[in-house]
């Protein structure tokens, strides 16, 4: 489904998966633009991936409120996913694509799509057998 509407989003977590998202060209073809990326790894904060500067996670709520962005991709470790999600909710995020292998507790009205790659592979194997 291609939307004529343009959507800005943010990415949290610039490990291997997050970096792959930043290099993926398919988002822009569908009207999505990653406006900012956030991480807590000091060795990454301040650096750039492509044209996007990596911001510290502590900046996320203010950035979201100022930019009025409603969509986020979370590619963070399971142990910090709820804490990150809470910051996203506080900043006004309404929809999250979550790649952390954990369910996120969230307020009513928030849409979260959980993607667990291992479970998706298990589904594929099931249909092969």
Description:
It is a single chain. The chain has five helices and seven strands. By secondary structure, the protein is an alpha/beta fold. Helix 3 (60-67) packs parallel to helix 4.
Key traits:
129 residues; Rossmann fold; 5 helices; 7-stranded mixed β-sheet; alpha/beta; 7 strands; single chain; globular
Strand content: 25-35%
Q: What is the CATH first-level class name?
A: Alpha Beta
The main β sheet shows up as:
7 strands, mixed
Spatial strand sequence of the major β-sheet: 3-4-2-1-5-6-7
Q: Average pLDDT, to the nearest integer?
A: 93
User: Would you list the SSEs in sequence order as H and E?
Assistant: EHHEEEHEHEEH
Terminal Cα span? 30 Å
CATH topology: Rossmann fold
CATH architectural group? 3-Layer(aba) Sandwich
Shape: globular
- List low-confidence stretches: none
Number of domains: 1
The percent range for helix content is: 25-40%
* Count of individual beta strands: 7
CA gyration radius, whole angstroms: 15 Å
Note the total helix count. Answer: 5
Q: Give me the CATH superfamily.
A: NAD(P)-binding Rossmann-like Domain
